[in-house]
Write a structure and sequence with these properties.
Layout lengths: L6 H15 L6 H8 L3 H4 L6 H24 L4 H18 L1 H7 L8 H17 L7 H23 L9 H17 L4
Helix pairs in contact: 1-4, 1-6, 4-5, 4-6, 4-7, 5-6, 5-9, 8-9
């Protein structure tokens, strides 16, 4: 007898499928086919596509928080920032669907989603501890890093860098620039 399908198994399969086909192409029908069940059977585990995408975002936030935490462990300052940036970029390249799900903020009433997003922000804040930022300065620095890295990743994934210069060399310069900004950060 086959094992009973669980919500966690459905979400895991949806994460893999979204990495393969893209988050926007993910549908309940495609997920059902991928699971080997009739698409209506998926609704035993998720309410609708919005619920599925929210669960994917939550899973992605927890996953990348763990990956980033491990990458930055024992590092500080520029080394932690570089580990954070390189690890996020590599993870996004391997997990395009999950990365896309990560970009959608959880609904205010989604406690688990808010918690997972908070865990990710806490990991980023921890990686920045050597810069001695607090309160609004820390919030602004996290937003700067997230928006800069996301912009770079999004352009790279869309083949938006057409110049002959090495993208890796540019990325190293972006990280060095972020370090310089954070080192001299003041209110």
């Amino acid at each position: 007898m086959a094992e009973r399908l669980t919500r966690a198994a459905v979400i895991d399969r949806a994460a893999s499928l979204s990495d393969d086909i893209g988050l926007e192409a993910l549908t309940i029908t495609k997920l059902g086919r991928s699971l080997g069940i009739a698409p209506p059977g998926v609704y035993r585990h998720v309410t609708d596509l919005s619920d599925l995408r929210g669960a994917l975002g939550q899973q992605a936030a927890r996953e990348i928080a763990g990956v980033l935490s491990a990458a930055c462990a024992g590092l500080s300052g520029a080394d932690a920032l570089a580990a954070l940036a390189h690890t996020l970029r590599a993870w996004a390249a391997r997990h395009r669907g999950r990365y896309a799900a990560l970009q959608v903020a959880p609904d205010p009433g989604d406690v688990a989603g808010q918690t997972a997003a908070g865990e990710l922000i806490a990991v980023i804040a921890s990686a920045l501890r050597a810069y001695r930022l607090a309160d609004d300065d820390l919030t602004d620095a996290i937003r700067l890093i997230r928006s800069t890295l996301h912009g770079f990743v999004a352009l790279e994934q869309a083949s938006g860098f057409k110049q002959a210069r090495s993208v890796d060399a540019t990325f190293a310069r972006v990280i060095a620039s972020l370090d310089a900004v954070l080192t001299g950060w003041s209110s």
